Amino acid sequence: YALAADRTNGSLDNLQDALHPAVLALCERTVAAARRHDISVSVCGLVAADRLGAAVLTAMGVDKLSVSARFVNIIKSVIDSLDRAETGSMVEAALSAPTAGDVRRIVRDALDRT
Question: For 99, which DSSP code?
């Protein structure tokens, strides 16, 4: 478990944000370790189907995102719109952001510039 918070308990919502910088740092370390061993990294779930989550995870080097059919076109469009020259600085800024809200702002701003 990365977050270990019961998703059905609404009072724990503040503890289960997949875009928290600490969670993204865990993802970045996972991607780096996988690269060293020639292993692909896949992410599924709500963060993969979220346009901001998909953008930052793809920029980080996640190889595959698994989303339900209704999100495929949206997420494909987001990934296709990423400015490869800017993704490194977006990831760096997201990882050094103090809060998940700041991460969202950073990624949203990067997407808006494309």
Answer: S
